[in-house]
Structures are given as C-alpha cells and as structure tokens.
Write a structure and sequence with these properties.
Helices cover 45% and strands 13% of the residues. With 419 residues, it is of the alpha/beta class. Helix 15 runs antiparallel to helix 16. Bound molecules: pyridoxal-5'-phosphate.
Length: 419
Amino acid sequence: MNDNGLLRETDPKIAGVIAAERDRQNDTLELIASENHVSGSVLEALGTVLTDKYAEGYPRKRWYRGCENVDSVEQIAIDRAKKLFGAEHANVQPHSGTSANLAVYVAALKPAQKIMGMHLAHGGHLSHGRDNNISGTHYRAVHYRVREDTETLDMDQVRDQVLLERPDILVCGASAYPRTIDFEAFGRIAREAGCLLLSDIAHIAGLVVAGLHPDPVPHSDFVTTTNHKTLRGPRGGIILCKEQWGGRIDSAVFPGIQGGPLMHVIAAKAVAFAEAMHPEFKDYAQAIIDNATTLADELMARGWRLVTGGTDNHLMLVDLRSRMPELTGHQAAIWLSDAHLVTNKNAIPFDPRTPFESSGIRLGTPAITSRGLRTEHMKVIAGWIDEILSCGGDEQKIAEVRAAARELCSRFPVPNSSY
Ligand SMILES: Cc1ncc(COP(=O)(O)O)c(C=O)c1O
C-alpha cells in the first residue's frame, strides 16, 4: 500500500489491518526462512494500475486488445529472468512456486506418470509428490530421503533409488535442507536413468544468482523458483527451461493451469530481477550466508544440535531434543514469537513426533539481513533464542527478550516501513 491516506478514508477497516501488519513486521525479527522484506520499488510496482489489465496469452499473442504496455512489462521481465539465470526460455506468469511446478508436470508428463522428489519429512516440498497435493494425486509419486547418520543426501543412494524406481521426472530442491544441492550429480543421474530433471530452487534462487550456490540451469531440463524468498521479489513463481521446451511450458501455464496473468506482479518481478543484477545483491546474499553461519555456530556453541551439524545456505534446523527433550517445535515457536522472534516449527528427518508437534524449528536469515542485521547481531539473537528455548515458558524471561528484540528492531526498520 502506498499510504497516501485514501484507503484509510474509504476502507478504514482494511487500512487498519494493513497498518497493523506493517507495525508487526517492523516490531518483530522475521526468522522464517522462506520470507523476506521487498524493496519499496517492488512494493510500488505491485500497487499499480497494471492490476486492471486482462492479458491472457503472451507478449504480442494476446486474446485482448490494449496490451501494448503490459506486453512491454512482460517482455522486460522475461528478458531479465533469462539474463539473470542464464536460461534459454523463461515463463514469468506462474502465480506461485506450486503453480510453476504443476505447469512443469503438465508440460512434461501424462497423468499417472511417475514423479520422484525429496520426501517432505526430509526437507522436500508438498508439490514434489505429496499425497495431499495434486502432484501426488494425479501422478504416481515416490521419494528419496536423506541418510539417517548424516542427515544429508547421499548421491550414490539417490542414484540407486532412481535407477530402481525409474521415474519419468526427477525433482530436486527443498524447503528445509541446510546443505548445498549437487545439481550436477542430479543431472548425471537423470541422464543415466533416462528421465527429466526439474530443479526447484524456490529457497536458494537468490544465492544461485549471486554465484554463492552451484547453478542448476546447465544440468536441468526445467528450473522453477519462487520470487519471494532469497530472491527478494514479490510473491509468485517463474519457470526456466531449454528452448525446446518453451512452447510446451507456455501452453501448460496458459491455458493449461492458469487464466490471465497478474501483470502488476510481473512488473514487480521485473523490478526484483533488476535489483538482483546489481553488484550489491551479491553482498546481500553473502551477508545472508554469513549471518546464517554465525547464528548456527552460536547456537551449537550453546549446546543446540543442528540437523546435519550446521548450514551451507540461509537456513538451519534446530533439533530441540538435544537440550530440551520434552519441548516440541510447536511450543517453541509460540514462545519465540511471544518474544518477537518469528519462526516456524519443523519436522526434523526421522522425527518421532507428528508434523503438528515436531521436534524442530527452522530458522532463516534472508529477512533479518534485508533490514541490515549483520553477524554481531546474530550472536545476540542466538543468545535470545537459547534463553527462550531453555526458559520453560517463563513470562518474565519472554518479556525481557521481547523488550530487547523490539529495541533492536527499532534501530533497523524494514526497508519499506513507510508503506
Ligand atoms: C522448494 C519449494 N518449492 C515450491 C514452493 C511453493 O511456493 P508457493 O508457496 O509460492 O506455492 C516452496 C514454498 O515454500 C518451496 O519451499
């Protein structure tokens, strides 16, 4: 919302809720690994008249008249996406990461063909073949897992499983995996098994474009990503692929699974892609990793076990049983958010608890890095997390940490906090 006062006058109820959310974001430390704070420019592009325009189809091939300006917007977004990721073809219309993955399946598979992705309980995503998602109900889904002793992917084991299962499409990429993904090995395995490879870099796209995580594009038939995590763009997804798949992917998105594109969001994607091409974005991505490494080291120094023993990227999973065997992820996330440290509960690999209770919390640094926090602050935040997780819900302690966290927040406002 560009706060020029109009909405407050015409719809004070909604304006009030938006203002409350702006204040909540400003007043809490956002440690959810999949969230970020977009720039004021991205936010401005979102709140524009482009939302009014119907533009079914693609640039210069639309069903409706009056598309000359949205054609320019979409073409700029496509060109920037191709340049940013070094891809032959880009589709910038998917409304979300899940829609991007579904469009790849629609383009590449017939119903009931086989998908093989990382198991949700080991870090994968719902759209990688979970039985309560269309990827698992319309296709036959099987999964690979991490090793129990290292909690990492063992590419020899993955290869054995792929050669045994012979999927039609192999999916790699994760929502809760703190280590580097070996896209080259996945590409080799897919070629050996004669299947397609989809690399879903929803979480790590910002690190990939900054050159701080290996690049999946040369090894994959398809690459999908969300725009709104480490890439720091608006909500939504994109698909990148080789030229030979371009027509099938475009038809799968529209008319296959979507109607008219969200042109205001596509404009905001284009703005975010340009921001990610700036040299400063590389500094930002490096700071995300430095912050995550420091936060991880500081938590481990206080006796908390992290899944895989640390992190290579922007996120980490804390195994709460290592210090507080009775504490569930569900309870821990409530106490932390009461102290204005916002996280999510997360199953850890081979978790004996239900996903609702879970034995872990997932922490990520993209959002707090966007508001300017650096490694010295991570040491302080690790101390607060440790105090809250060990306090047994003590209200006095939670209030103390909340006051300190709010003071830190007040010194580092979110980038677009005037909106
Ligand atoms: C690996 C991965 N793929 C896809 C998605 C789906 O993105 P969306 O929530 O935009 O549908 C997520 C979201 O968390 C994700 O982590």
